[in-house]
Each structure stands twice: as C-alpha cells, then as structure tokens.
Amino acid sequence: MHLSPRRWAPSRAGAALIVCIAAITGPMAPFTASAQDEEDKPEVVDLKFEGVKALKVDEMRASIVTDESHCQSFVLRPICWFNKSRLFYERRYLDRDELIRDILRLRVFYWKRGFRETQVDTVITPRGPEKVAVKFAVDEGPPTIVSDVTVTQTNPVLSNRAVERRILLKRGDPLNMIKLDSMRVRLETALWDNGYADAIVDTSIAISGDGLSARVALTLNPRWRTTIDSVHVHGNEKVSERTIMRSLTFEKGDLYRRSDLLRSQRNLYESNLFRRAIIELSTEETSVDSTKIVDITVQESPPREARLSFGFTTADFLQAEGRYTHYNFTGGARRLTITGAIGNLLAGQLNNKLFFSDNYVNVGSDRGRYFAPTYNASAEMQQPWFGSARNALALSVFTHRRSAPGIYVDRGYGTSATFTREVALRAPASLNYRFEVTTVEAGDVYFCVNFGVCDRPTLDALRRHQRISPLTLTGNIDRTNDPFSPNRGYRGRTALEHASGLTASDYRYNRASVEGSAFMPVRRRGALGGHIRLGWVKGVASTGEALGALEGEQILHPRTRFFAGGAQSVRGFGENQLGPRILTVSAAELRAGRLSKDGPLACPESTPITDCDPNLPAYQDDDFQPRPLGGNTVAEANIELRFPLWKNLSGAAFVDAGIVTQSIDRSLPGSRAAVTPGFGVRYRSPVGPIRVDIGINPGRAERLPVISEEIVNGERRLVRLNTRREYSVSRGGFTGVLDRMVLHLSIGEAF
After folding, report:
1. Could you confirm whether domain 227-300 is CATH 3.10.20.310?
2. 194-246: per-residue pLDDT in tens?
3. Which residues are CB-contacts of 325 (< 8 A; sequence separation ≥ 6)?
4. Element (H, E) at 544
5. Identical fold at 31-139 and 305-585+624-747?
6. Whole-prediction pTM
7. N or C: where does the chain have the smaller number of CB atoms within 10 Å of the terminal CB?
8. Helix or strand or coil: residue 56?
9. Is the bond preceding residue 10 a cis peptide, omega within 30 degrees?
10. CA–CA gap between residue 19 and residue 326 (Å, rounded)
C-alpha cells in the first residue's frame, strides 16, 4: 500500500481518510480464540518485530490483534514456568485472516506517524506440534519530515505565546497526523474559550515531489464573537430552576465559552441531585449568528442517601460508620450531612492477636485508656454556589474521641465554618475557622516527657478543658485521572495554620505543611507513583500562661505535632513510631523482672530506681514500651511501583523514607530517620482498593532514654533512669527477620 498524496486539505478530509482505513482494518480489540478455534489454529508462542527503530514496539503490539501466549503478570512468571493453568497463563492462537489485517494495521500505524513508505511482511515458523512463532519484518523507509509549520489568524485573537503553547508538531519532526489533529483541536478549543463558538481551524499539508518533506499550514478563522442569548432548563421536577441556574458559571448576555459549560455541568453532577445533566447548544436557530441558545437537560436523583459500613485496620481494630445525607435540605441544593463512627471495638480482645500488634503501653493505668472505644460524630450544613457558582459555605458541629495508640487520647467538641472557592478547575482554596474545647487524656509520662512538666499542679492544669481554635488556609489541586488508583497526573495540598489569642485559642502556634503526589503509567495497567510531605510547627510563647501551666513556647497540642510511620506514611514502622522516642517500663518490671543467667534479680530493692541498669541481661526489649515524642518538623518521601497480578488483584513494591525532629527538650533524642522498603497487594473493590502492605524495618538499635515510676510518700512519681538502653525491634536470626516486618491493612492507596 503506497500513500503519498501531494496535497491533503482540509483536515476533515484527512479525518475521513483515516476513518476509511480504520473501517478496512476492522476491530482493534485483542483477539481471544474460542474453544472451537483452539482446535484448528496453532498457538502463538513467540511474537517479534524486526526492523523497528523509530517507533515503540509496545505501542505497535497494542495496535494489532495477533499476540503471543503469555503469563497474566510478570510477577507470576516463575509460576508460569511450571504451570500453564488458565489462572496464570493466557494462550493466544493464530488467526490468519487477522494476520493479513495486522499487516495493514501496522502500515496505517506508521503512516499516521509520518512514515508513508513503510512495508511490512510476516514470517511464520513452526515451534513444535500446533505451535508457531510469528515475526513481523518491518522496512520503515524514510519519514516525511515537516519542513515548515505556519499558523495564520484571519483575526489576531490568540497571542503568539498562546499559539506556540499549542503547537505540537515542530520543524524537523516526522509528519505525525495524530499530533497535527491534536494541535488543531487545541487551537480550536482556545478560540471557543475566548468566546468564538463558531471558530474554524483549517489545516493543509503540501507534500514535496519526492515525498520526503511536507509543509504544514493552519488557518485560524475566529469568525465572530458569540454570546448567550438564553438558557432553557428541561427535566427538573423537585429541584427548582432557580437552583439549577445558580450552579451555572455563565448567564444570559455572557460570552459563550466552552470551559464555562463544562464547569457548570460538573457543578450539577457534584451536587448529587442529578444522575444525568447535559448542557449543549440548542438546535433552535437564533435571529443572529453571534448568539447561542443553551439547553440544560437533567434527570433527578433521589435526594436522600444513607450508608452503613464496617471494617478494620491494624491500628484501630474493628470500626463501624454511618452516614445520612440530604442533598436538597429545605431546597437550594443545601446539603445536610450527619455522620457518626465508632472504632477500637474489641481492642482488648484482639490486641496482640493475629495481625493486630500490641500498640499499647504498660505504665500505670494507661492501657485501659487506649482500649476504650473511639468515636466521632458531626452534623454539617453546606450551601453550594454561595454568592457564585464557584463558592461554597459550610457550617458544622462535632464531637470526637481520638486515640493515638500508646501516646494520648484527644477528646473535644465544637463548631467550624469553612468558605471554599474554586480558583481553577479541581483546584479549590478554603478558609476555615474551628472553635473547639479539648481535653488531652494521657499518662504522666506523656506530659512529663513532651511538655517537660512533671509537677502535679501543672499536670492537672494541662488535663483541664482547653480551647484550640485555629484559623486555617488550605489549597488543593488535583490533576489525576482516577480518585482511587491514579496512574497519570499529579495532586497537591498545602495548609497554613495559626492559633493565638486573636482566634480565642489557649493552645497557640503557627503550623505549615505541604504534600504532593505524581503518577505516570507503566506498561498497560501499571503505575509509578511518588509522594512527598513536609511539615513545620512552632509554639507561641504565651501558650503556657494561657493554659494556666507555665511560661514557654514548648507546649504544643499533640494534634499539632508531626508523627511519621504507619499505613500512609513510612510503612516499615508502626503507627506514629518513626521519630524521636523514649522507653517506658514499670517499676515492678524493673524490680522483679526476669531472672538473669547468673541468678540475681535485675534491679534489687536496695538500688535507687534511677540507678537501675536497663541493659542488664535480665531485661529484654519486650519489657520496654517505645513512646513517640512527635516533632516540630517532618519530611517524608515515598516511591511505589504498582503492577497488575490477576484480574482485580494488583501488587506493589515501594520504598518509604522519613525523618522527624524535635527541638523541645535537648536532653531527649532530637531526630530519627529511616528508609524502609516493602511490598504489598491490592484488591480493587467498589469502595476503593483494599490494601495489604508489609514494610521492612531497618532493625537498627537505638540508645533511648528510659522513663519509669516510683512511689514516694504514697504518691506515684515519674523518674528518668540515669542510663539509656540499647533498644531494637529485631532479635536476630530468622525470628528477627519476622520481627522487622510490619503489616498494614487498610482501604485506599497509601497516597
């Protein structure tokens, strides 16, 4: 087949030619032989492409029907060497009719990309009984090179920079028809978004006599500017026309912009009031060409929704959640959402059983505090399209009891107000004020170590009800192609938080954080993703006085500190366990611990508890409980390769890294950093990927301070041992390897 037209114009004629060729080539879907076909056709055990230099073989494979038998996933290849079961191995058979069509498909594939002289032949070689190898021998030939690209505007509407940004085909490139068509569409869309709804972009190609070069010309004809003449709404029953009109980013008399129509359509869908919403130009003619009639056709959804769900994670044990939403409460698309959740169910029974690790502490009565159920409940009223189709206002009341295992329990209630504006498509910015009365429940260890407060009056002050009322500015952007498991695009979030006397807050601080993720596709169904998180927080000097405790800026509410480690962080560590830590141990364990090999008790009663040596052979690491301190700064980085395994099952290999630092108490560990590799599997479910990850802890020993307790005059008092302990999660040998593996179960990707 030889295609070398001397002139090809306009673009619609070229599009028609491609459509005709596609019709000749037939369907492009992968071909799987039926049981009857398998008896008559040989199995293709090898498929090769010879002579391919300019283009990608993987893309060529995807453009044809003929394929070789292969393992369902490259991860399963070791199994496929021994087992060719259909569960792991997919057999492909030779269809000679499709093979003939594949020759034409490959020539069209090359022609579209600027190689108009390409020739393709096939070689079929027997490889045993009913088995063959197929080779496509490709003679690419010389490409048709673009010698010049010119863009002419009959009326200079777009700036030179705007035009240049949309030029995909450059001088010296092969004459790629796909890029040319994409370039035409991008220029046409730019004209539409400037109010020229009837704009036309014509393309023409002049091929040289020898077929080796081509001149490309595009003519932009904006014609006339168009405005919205009127807007008609159809199909609404319970939702008022006024409510629908408020969702629109355009109105009568505005310039017609295609982007406004798309954004308005997205607003209608995001209201959850409609299962179908179409915005299009009316076929009804207007009196003048410069005006357009817009038709909006909707199909309403049920206005109420209720949901009840159950689940579990390795950090929160069993959980139950309920949600009720009314999407048109009192009209105006006003949304009422009532939620409630309870967690930590059966914590006492499941702790340290199966895959539920022991995250709790053995000092004093702390253990019971962390076993108690956690909960949160809220009622929120949201008014979308508040003053503008790009604005939203939300008011809520809430109460909660949260637990960071082994660290603190955070109880609170309050109210919040949030104003959100969509700055750009899928890029909202929000200003939130949250007034909350909070109580921190924690053992003396927590306050003594984290706040440097060990005296009873101050401890009692910190345990009283206090106000935490930050003003927070956040910005988000999402350019990914899938909300659950993206394989292309990026997203980011930044937050600035301030709390002081001006915001009626007792806890006073400044806090900033930023995080971002990026994804790129790998092969057909895989993805490579990267993620970073940075954070900083600093207390205000007046916090101690406001809390009725002591002067100083070191008092930070535990919620404002940064922690690392866990299912969505550095997965080689348990929840919040990466960072500066101390060890806690009960006095009873120190005094009457395990007998050493030499016989005497670990720490005799005659020895002051502060002089007990925590490194004696009588003690094991299991006798001590690591307690995270949190930090003023955090930095995390994650990279993860996701790949298909079988049907809805996929795998992942990852490397996580992080560091947490604290500058509150110089006598305590200042920072901790680690790099942890790992692997996992995901199951794609309707509610998102169900994820099982195993992170591998480095197992390095740390020299950590040890906190215990003693009874003085009938009163329990915390003390710090004079000697630090060498502490490690790994016991060495094969058992030590298992100790270093940290299991995480959760719903949703890590980032």
Report:
1. yes
2. 999 999 999 999 999 888 999 999 999 999 999 999 999 999 999 999 999 99
3. 272, 304, 305, 306, 335, 336, 337, 338
4. helix 543-547
5. no
6. 0.77
7. N
8. coil
9. yes
10. 48
Domain spans of the chain?
31-139, 227-300, 305-585+624-747
E-only strand ranges, 9-144: 43-50, 70-71, 89-90, 119-126, 131-139
* CA dist list (Å): 456 to 323, 411, 460, 704, 715: 42, 21, 6, 25, 10
Please state, as a whole number, how many other Cβ atoms lie within 10 Å of the Cβ of residue 188.
Answer: 18
Express each pLDDT in 109-168 by its tens digit: 999 999 999 999 999 999 988 899 999 999 999 999 999 999 999 999 999 999 999 999
Tell which phi-psi region holds residue 418, choosing left (phi > 0), alpha (psi between -120 and 50) or beta: beta
DSSP state, residue 625: E
CATH topology of domain 305-585+624-747: Porin (2.40.160)
Structure tokens at 525: 């169904």
Amino acid at 166: R
- Write a three-state SS string for 466-520: EEECCEEEEEEEECCCCCCCCCCEEEEEEEEEEECHHHCCCCCEEEEEEEEEEEE
- For 661-698, the pLDDT digits (tens) are 988 777 788 899 999 999 999 998 877 899 999 999 98
5 in the Ramachandran plot: left (φ > 0), alpha (ψ -120 to 50) or beta? beta
Tell which wins on pLDDT, 484 or 489.
Answer: 489
Domain over 31-139 is classified CATH 3.40.470.10: no
Tokens 């949160």, located at residue = 376
**Cβ atoms within 10 Å, residue 413:** 16
What token pair was written down for 265?
Answer: 């359509």
Tell me if residue 590 falls in helix, strand or coil. helix
Rounded CA-CA distance 404/273 in Å is 38
**Six token digits for residue 378:** 């809220």
Helix (H) or strand (E) holding 106: helix 96-112
